[in-house]
Design a protein that fits this description.
Blueprint: E1 6-11, H1 25-42, H2 47-52, E2 55-66, E3 75-86, E4 89-98, E5 103-115, E6 156-162, H3 176-184, H4 189-194, E7 199-204, E8 213-220, E9 227-234, E10 238-246
Antiparallel strand pairs: 1-3, 2-5, 2-7, 3-4, 4-5, 6-8, 7-10, 8-9, 9-10
Helix pairs in contact: 1-3
């Protein structure tokens, strides 16, 4: 493993699984973001370091693919690394593997660094002392395709959810992974059992807060019958999140 990559070990504990006996997508998503935070902190550009500078990392895009679900009791690790910076964004990647080295899946993500006061993204190429450029692994790119463009043409409204206390993260915004769970909630248990989810894409557009009424809109992907497209909107028309779920 490259010195600028880090790997974190976990076990699929009871109560972290879904109803099929596999690590839930929500739990996996949160672990992936946790690994991102720990790796950044180890290299001096994590949550606490950026908070002291009046800045915070914001997730812009996330794609997760799992070819082999993780069963209860499985020992696994998540490896993460960063390969590039391009002005207002940086790409971070992940590999999920069992303790014996078997690769089960991957993820790729895009982040921006936002100023608390102005709410504007920082230019990552101009951070003091070079920022985290020494941590990059440019020769090791994304292990899967990044989240693509999502366009709903014939969307139908499928659910409404009012943001509540348990939806909030440490920044008091609607938690990034809770959006992912909202998309999965639009399928029946029977459908997900017959068509296990293989890939989820998320594109984060706006923040949502306590009390916001979120509408979930759904559409079929005419180019891929295994893929369902989503938008989560607030205030009637503002798109908060776009996403897709693929079997």
């Amino acid at each position: 493993m490259d010195k600028n990559a880090s790997s974190y070990a976990y076990t699929v504990e009871p109560f972290t699984e879904d109803c099929f006996g596999h690590l839930s997508w929500g739990r996996l998503g949160n672990l992936i973001l946790r690994c991102a935070s720990m790796h950044a902190g180890e290299h001096e550009f994590g949550f606490e370091q950026m908070k002291r500078l009046g800045q915070a990392w914001v997730l812009s895009r996330l794609a997760i693919e799992m070819d082999h679900p993780l069963p209860t009791g499985a020992h696994f690790e998540i490896e993460t690394w960063v390969d590039r910076i391009y002005r207002q964004f940086t790409d971070r990647h992940f590999t999920v593997r069992l303790a014996d080295g078997t690769v089960c899946g991957h993820a790729t993500s895009t982040w921006s660094l936002i100023d608390f006061q102005t709410r504007q993204p920082a230019d990552l190429t101009k951070l003091s002392d070079g920022g985290f450029t020494q941590t990059l692994i440019p020769e090791r790119g994304a292990p899967i395709a990044p989240a693509g463009r999502i366009r709903l043409k014939h969307a139908s409204h499928t659910a409404t959810h009012r943001a509540a206390f348990s939806d909030l993260d440490i920044n008091r915004h609607f938690n990034s992974i809770r959006y992912l769970e909202l998309l999965l909630d639009q399928f029946s248990m029977e459908h997900l059992e017959a068509h296990p989810v293989r890939r989820i894409e998320m594109a984060y557009c706006l923040e949502a807060y306590m009390g916001d009424e979120l509408e979930v809109w759904r559409d079929d992907d005419l180019n891929n019958p295994l893929r369902t497209l989503f938008e989560i909107r607030k205030n009637g028309s503002e798109v908060v999140v776009k996403g897709s779920v693929e079997s």
